[in-house]
Backbone:
């Protein structure tokens, strides 16, 4: 009888501890994010409600961040105007928001040179808990800390404009 009781208590504790884990999905009830602005040179990202700054984040970029992304595999983060066009709650990088790169001009430029412009550019979390140890580690994406990405993911909706400056 003692073994059964101990097992029941341990099983109950395991279930309760699983329920106590924090979800990566947050709620947000504040002002609408009407634009995201990323300044590559300063390694910062702003979430704006019209002209008012709601949040500011430090970011990591592609492994070769200087200049506009032109081709697949160049390690650059794009520059220009895009939109958030998709969400990935099961991203390998915690959570991610897709950026509409490449646009028509990006595609035309790459094709004129017989190359692929690449794609799959996201704002996302870290690859590992040690992601902060190496700056500019992505293949061209914009990365923030996982806890920050949880807030960004909750705040930003598909269709939100994104401006990426040099």
Residues:
């Amino acid at each position: 009888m003692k073994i059964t009781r101990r097992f029941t208590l341990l099983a109950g504790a395991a279930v309760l501890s699983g329920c106590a884990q924090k979800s990566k999905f947050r709620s947000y009830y504040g002002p609408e994010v009407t634009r995201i602005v990323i300044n590559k040179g300063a390694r910062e990202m702003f979430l704006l409600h019209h002209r008012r700054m709601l949040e500011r984040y430090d970011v990591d970029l592609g492994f070769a961040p200087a200049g506009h992304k032109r081709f697949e595999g160049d390690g650059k983060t794009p520059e220009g105007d895009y939109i958030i066009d998709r969400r990935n709650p099961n991203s390998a990088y915690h959570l991610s928001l897709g950026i509409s790169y490449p646009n028509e001009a990006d595609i035309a430029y790459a094709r004129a040179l017989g190359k692929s412009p690449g794609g799959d550019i996201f704002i996302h979390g870290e690859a590992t808990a040690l992601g902060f140890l190496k700056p500019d580690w992505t293949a061209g994406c914009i990365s923030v800390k996982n806890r920050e990405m949880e807030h960004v993911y909750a705040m930003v909706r598909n269709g939100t404009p994104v401006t990426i400056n040099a």
